[in-house]
Amino acid sequence: MPMSLSRLTAMAVTLTAVLVASAAPAQAQAVAPTVLRMVDLGTLGGESSYAIAMNDLGEVVGNSATVDGSWHGFVWREGRMTDLGALEPADINNKGQIAGQLDGVAVVWTEGRVTTIGTFGGTYSRPISINDKGHVVGVAATGDGSTVPFLWRHGTLTRLPLDDVSDLNDKGVVSGGRLVEGGFHAGTWRGGAVTDLGAGAFNRSNTYGINEKGWVIGWVFSAGQRERGALWRGGELTDVGTLGGDTTHLIAINDRGRVLATSQLADGGVHPASWYRGAWTDLTTRGVNSEADLVDLNDNGQIAGAYRPVFGISHAIIYT
Fold first, then answer.
1. Dihedral (C-alpha) 309, 281, 76, 41: value to the nearest 10 degrees?
2. Which of 201, 225, 253, 260 could form a disulfide with 297, with the two C-beta atoms 3.0–4.6 Å apart?
3. Neighbours of 257 (CB within 10 A)
4. Could you read off the pLDDT of 256-298 as tens digits, one per residue?
5. Confidence of residue 1 (pLDDT cuts 50, 70, 90)
6. What is the Cα–Cα distance from 298 to 291, expressed in whole angstroms?
7. Which region is the signal sequence (predicted)?
């Protein structure tokens, strides 16, 4: 027997409702903020340790007390801390090479083999940063006792026309600063040429680091003579702001443009924080201890530093 018109109409309405429902996007689910997990790197047998630098593999260098109370350098990788003896680490690249200081002179450590960088006739040199090509920047003493910045590459030590250095990338761009008339300006060096990045109030600025994009982090002063975090991209200066207070101190920048910092809140407190694409994150809301001493950030978002489990004791850590 043929279906009635009313029954056909009801079936059509039902089918339409089913099709519409299946085509509608699922309701968005709330995503919980990422909570960082703290990994305690331990010590070399003593009570305390602290981190200095980290590479993109999560390998960390720093210093640690030993059983007899002396301090030794260490490299931590794959869950194990290795004693570097008298080597004082400054930085580690993605090949595991460590720039450090041994008996007051800058060296490069490569799986136990030590290469001396040297000086400009003095008795002292100190490395600051090593890139993935094994090139190193730092400062070295001259014969007259003054200290000047250097670039070391392919076994050759070159004096840089800067008054301070902070970092270098794999493209050979060095971040630093130099004295200018009436002040001090952040700047970069590449291939013999210095680029002045300028300064804010009081004619003062300097750098803290550089990434592979050539983005430079550092500081300028506010009108109230408070430290403000500065980011230079393509030579343009951006004041990255604060967590609500007056000051921000930048620590490190990774190749994705994320910046590690400490920043003042409106109530005057200072918290560890990160800045990315114009937005701030208070890292204490992600599980980071408010008193953690953070020192580095890698491209995977891991953060190296130290915390104090009890008063007077420090442990090297990674937040991951």
1. 20
2. 260
3. 14
4. 999 999 999 999 999 999 999 999 999 999 999 999 999 999 9
5. very low
6. 20
7. 1-28
Residue 25 has pLDDT above 90, yes or no: no
Instruction: Answer with the residue of higher pLDDT: 19 or 89.
Output: 89
pLDDT value of position 14: 43
Report d(CA 122, CA 87) in Å as an integer: 20
> Using CA atoms, how far apart are residues 196 and 5, in angstroms rounded to an integer?
83
**Residue 184 structure tokens:** 């001090």
Question: CA-CA distance, 184 to 226, in Å (whole number)?
Answer: 16
Helix (H, G, I), strand (E, B) or coil at 206: strand
**Tokens 């004041």 appear where?**
239
Q: Specify the pLDDT at position 53.
A: 98
Reported pTM:
0.89
Q: What is the mean pLDDT of the chain?
A: 92
Q: List, edge to edge, every strand of the sheet that includes 313-319.
A: 38-42, 313-319, 303-310, 293-297
What token pair was written down for 320?
A: 């991951």
Residues in the chain, how many?
Answer: 320
pLDDT of residue 31: 63
Amino acid symbol at 180 = V
Burial class from Cβ neighbours inside 10 Å (0-12, 13-18, 19+) for residue 245 reads: middle
The domain 160-288 is placed in CATH, from the list 3.40.50.300, 1.10.645.10, 2.40.50.140, 2.130.10.10, at: 2.130.10.10
Spatial distance between the Cα atoms of 62 and 97, rounded to a whole number of angstroms: 14
Taking a C-beta distance cutoff of 8 angstroms, is the pair 61, 72 a contact? no
Is the separation of the CB atoms in 97 and 80 below 8 Å?
Answer: no
Closest C-alpha among 234, 224, 179, 229 to residue 204:
179
Please report, for the chain, the start and end positions of each structural domain, with discontinuous segments joined by +: 160-288
